[in-house]
Amino acid sequence: MTFAIALLALALQQDQTPRQSAAFNREFYELSASTGGDFYFWAPGEFASSRLQVPVHHEDVFFAYGDLDSKRVFEIPIESGAKSMTLFAGAQRKDLAVLVRPDGTVARDGIQSFQHMAIATISAPAAGMWRLELHGGGAYAVTAHVDPGADGIQLIAFDFVEQGGRPGHEGMFPIKREAKRGEKLTCRVVVSGATKDAKLVFVARDGSLLDSTKLSEEYVPCVVPSVPYRAGVAGTDASGRAFQRLMPPLHSAE
Question: What architecture does CATH give domain 154-246?
Fold first, then answer.
């Protein structure tokens, strides 16, 4: 099934007519955007009758926040052997939200649909690139997480570091100041689990890639982005399937 056909099929089966824009607190929204949280765009009176099943998050895979103009497609890489995937998609005006598996079929099980949001919990998700198509307008928030299992890939740490310590105990330590835009530094990235072709990545507030550097060892040279960014790691797992892990905080360099 092609993506276009899958989109049409879901639209015919569900009430996805254009909605009114939700009233929302911009300050709380910006807090979610800066910390990697889910921002709930509730319609009046919807929460009381929602019977919401709050998803349990694990490893952070994807964050995107911004303003939606008509539609946008988000690509979410899920590696082999993941136990579950959780996804949150909300928009000030949600006209249509469709989650598509790597084989092009529409995901229906495990999805809670609200007037301005779609929340999914997918058990044993197929490995590959999942796609979310979101139609609407106004502010939006999309987050995705995966439970990789006990031996799965985890992003343990990320830091900008520099040489320090006292004589006889020298080493690389996290910098004690704010990183500056465009500054050339050393990054420390610690990842557990079997990976191939891993890269340090910086992504923008809207989830788009800003820069990447091959991870040949724990310490790699890097350049601080000039726009707000999240740091993470991406690549392939032992089976050659794409993965991504991100640190939730959104940083703004000086």
Answer: Sandwich (2.60)
Q: Where are the domains of the chain?
A: 3-147, 154-246
> In the Cβ-directed half-sphere of 121, how many Cα atoms lie within 13 Å?
9
pTM over 0.85: yes
Architecture of domain 3-147: Sandwich (2.60)
Question: For residue 109, what are the contacts with CB-CB under 8 A and spacing of at least 6?
Answer: 122
Decide whether 3-147 matches 154-246 in CATH topology. no
Q: CA–CA separation, 241 vs 30, rounded Å?
A: 33
pLDDT tens digits for 63-114? 999 999 989 999 999 999 999 999 999 999 999 999 999 999 999 999 999 9
Beta carbons within 10 angstroms of residue 158's beta carbon: 22
